[in-house]
Amino acid sequence: MRIPVHLGRGPVEAAETGIAAFYDGLLECLKDPAFRDGDWQLLECRPAWDGNGTWDSFVAFSWTGPGERAASSPSTTPSPRASATLRCRGATSTGGSGASRTSPGPAVYDRAGGDLTSQGLYLDMPAWGYHVFAVSHAR
């Protein structure tokens, strides 16, 4: 006796526009050649202040290529937001450097090169949020 099995059946569900927008933005920034051809490295995240344990939920990495790109993303946290400081590798200890957030928004963060290596770049993001930074170095 054969019993018919319906594979792939399920209720019709409404599209999740927030999830679609998240992946559209993420996939758009991944078109940068640095993500394909650059050298990958895990970056160091540190507490934004004493007693804040949410820094441990960040995963941060960089690709060094035709410009330096540093991407960071917190995982789920017990609280709705997570904060950390991110050390940007390759920033000079003297002179200016700028870290420009390219996704999900156009904000620009100007920091001295020494600040990026000693203090790091401050991050405050919601759970499952992400930022992609283009780090430029003034000479």
How do the helices and strands line up, and which of them pair or pack?
Blueprint: H1 17-29, H2 33-37, E1 39-42, E2 45-46, E3 58-64, E4 68-74, E5 81-86, E6 96-103, E7 108-112, H3 113-118, E8 121-126, E9 131-137
Antiparallel strand pairs: 1-3, 2-5, 3-4, 4-9, 5-8, 6-7, 6-9
Describe what you observe in this structure.
The protein is α+β, with helices and mostly antiparallel strands. The protein has one domain (17-137): Golgi alpha-mannosidase II (Immunoglobulin-like), CATH 2.60.40.1180. Helix content is 17%, strand content 37%. The chain is built from three helices and nine strands, in the order ααβββββββαββ. The protein has a six-stranded antiparallel sheet. Strands 2-5-8 form a three-stranded antiparallel sheet, with no helix packed on it. Strand 6 and strand 7 (108-112) form a beta hairpin. The termini are far apart. The mean pLDDT is 75.
Number of domains: 1
Strand content: 35-45%
**Class by SSE composition:** alpha+beta
Give the name of the CATH superfamily.
Golgi alpha-mannosidase II
Q: Largest sheet, order of strands side by side?
A: 1-3-4-9-6-7
The helix fraction, in percent, is: 10-25%
Tell me the number of helical segments per DSSP (H or I, 4 or more residues long): 3
Taken from the alpha-carbon principal axes, the silhouette is elongated
N-to-C order of helices and strands: HHEEEEEEEHEE
Poorly predicted tracts of residues? none
Mean pLDDT: 75
The oligomeric status of these chains comes to: single chain
Q: Major beta sheet, specifics?
A: 6 strands, antiparallel
The radius of gyration over CA amounts to 19 Å
CATH topology group: Immunoglobulin-like
CATH architecture: Sandwich
Q: In CATH, what is the class?
A: Mainly Beta
The total beta strand count reads: 9
Question: Distance between termini?
Answer: 78 Å
